[in-house]
Amino acid sequence: MSRLRSTVLGGLLLAAAPVISGGAALAAPEDALRPVEKYTTVREKSLASAHRTRLLQFAAQIYNCLPWLAVYPGELGFRQARDNQGNDLYLSMWIWVDQREDASFAALSQQRRVSAMFSRYGVDMLRRMAELSDVLDDRNVAGLSVVLSWLKPGTSRPGRQAVNETLALFVDKATAMDFLAKRVAPDEFASRSQFTLFDGLDAVGRVPLEVWEDSFNSTYKVNSYEPPKGAQCQ
Amino acid sequence: MRAWLSLASFIGGVLMLTAACATSEEWSEWRSHTTHFASGTHGMFSMRNNKDGSNPRVSRTDIDSARQENWWGKAITVSPEQIFQN
Lengths: 234, 86
Description:
Oligomer: heterodimer
Order of helices and strands of chain A: HHHHEEHHHEEHHEEH
Number of helices of chain A: 10
Structural class of chain A: alpha+beta
Structural class of chain B: mainly alpha
Order of helices and strands of chain B: HHH
Helix content of chain A: 25-40%
């Protein structure tokens, strides 16, 4: 009980402190899409053009309905993993999570934070991307990629340089769909996925990833927040 | 000397166990309370709304403005080139 009280008090004190934004420039929905001119091959340009309208709608839904998240400018599109030997293209989205300093989050080890953030935000974003069936059905799309960045606890204190932790995950379409339909267990999903953790600029590499059910991202509502008229939030 | 070593080992063991339990407890607390922590926007707007006793609606633009107003530095983040090929 005293722990809960102290955590609540800590939260209130933190609310009084200056809010630290995690480094993502603010991107309106149209800025979230990777510009067509940045693609280098005909296949990539063709994919981007074919699905532009759908991805714009998707970006708008995130912008309007999930205001605690932000898509990095130009980071919603079709990408290849850096270590990919072939030329597989993934529908990819890089999200910044507005996670402020929090005592219980800071108490977790780095690998636990990764599991927590992926379970809370990564799985739900995969689910939302998987619902773009017209995009996923495109034979040029090999899989899904979610990149999550959040403020590393303790680095936003005065006099320190704020640092983001980033998890970049790539998974093939079949595994993603089977995992979301609960036909593939979380540990199997993790073992089939390609992922890397970055601590600021430093590559930490693959860490143990535990994935569990967390409905926060699909149920949370910002107090008094009103989505723009016409926004369809589910 | 031997007694001191035993005592030091005992204290070290207790400290390790305590630390492990605390971590485990914190972990389970965070995991079980899905709305235990919230985004900065949530805390920020709760405070703002309560300040004058009113409860104004918060728009998406308000959130953007608040983030920009409170922005004081850029967090070090991995570059896209470290993640993607193209």
